[in-house]
From TrEMBL:
GO biological process: proteolysis
Record's keyword annotation contains Isomerase: no
Organism: Escallonia herrerae
Domain Subtilisin-like protease fibronectin type-III as annotated: residue spans: 98-194
Keywords from the UniProt entry: Hydrolase, Protease, Serine protease, Signal
Family the UniProt entry places it in: Belongs to the peptidase S8 family.
Keyword Hydrolase (UniProt): yes
GO molecular function ontology, one term from the record: serine-type endopeptidase activity
Name of the protein this chain belongs to: Subtilisin-like protease fibronectin type-III domain-containing protein
């Protein structure tokens, strides 16, 4: 289940070990990962003062609904629209990657890609400076620009870019990291979930493919 964009910032770091320091296991008895344990337990007090929020806009929700199969007519029935907002789905598939959601998931990273996120200052202080801390998923080089966000007023928005570069040969394995923005008192965490797919499977040989001897294989009779 997706967490509300504001409350997501009040989640603590999820634990992967129990009180006896043993690895927590998933239902299949494998070691648990973020797919099993989520983003952590919610802290209601921190939810009252999250510091930053990823404020999703109407067009983010419309794109998400389009991508899971809703029609324009269905979207118009369920979304309260401001004047001038279009519910038309984009022609062709447009990725969910840049939907302004706190977590970042890339299900098939084959080459370098850049993702944009926007965060709004809702802290008690009008002026604030947030610094980024990055934990790279295994086999992924992560670059965040800018590394420092400056806010001069309440509810001001700032954006940043995350560039993901695969640096390993892999296929079908998810790895996990995080980006944490902190002003010293708030710690705004975004999970990174990346599946590196840099192994290309060659197509099966066709009937006209030359064999090792250089001749065309004959059909059996």
């Amino acid at each position: 289940m997706q967490k509300p964009f504001l409350l997501r910032q009040a989640y603590g770091v999820p634990y992967t070990k129990d009180t006896t320091d043993d690895i927590i296991l998933a239902g299949s008895m494998k070691a648990s990962d973020p797919f099993d344990i989520g983003a952590g337990h919610i802290n209601p007090l921190k939810a009252m003062d999250p510091g930053l929020v990823y404020d999703m806009k109407t067009h983010d929700y419309i794109l998400y609904l389009c991508n899971i199969g809703y029609t324009q007519d269905q979207i118009q029935r369920m979304v309260i629209l401001s004047p001038g907002t279009s519910t038309a789905c984009p022609k062709g598939h447009k990725t969910n990657t840049n939907i302004n959601y706190p977590s970042i998931t890339v299900s098939s990273l084959q080459s370098t890609m850049t993702i944009k996120r926007t965060v709004r200052n809702v802290g008690h202080r009008k002026t604030a400076i947030y610094f980024a801390r990055i934990v790279n998923p295994d086999g992924v080089e992560v670059v965040v620009w800018p590394r420092v966000l400056f806010y001069s007023c309440f509810k001001e928005e700032a954006f940043y870019f995350v560039t993901l570069k695969p640096v390993k040969i892999s296929q079908g394995r998810y790895d996990f990291g995080e980006i944490v923005w902190s002003d010293g008192s708030h710690h705004v965490r975004s999970p990174l979930v990346v599946c590196v797919n840099t192994i290309t499977t060659p197509p099966p040989p066709s009937a006209t493919t030359l064999n090792a001897g250089g001749s065309v294989p004959h059909a059996s009779v």
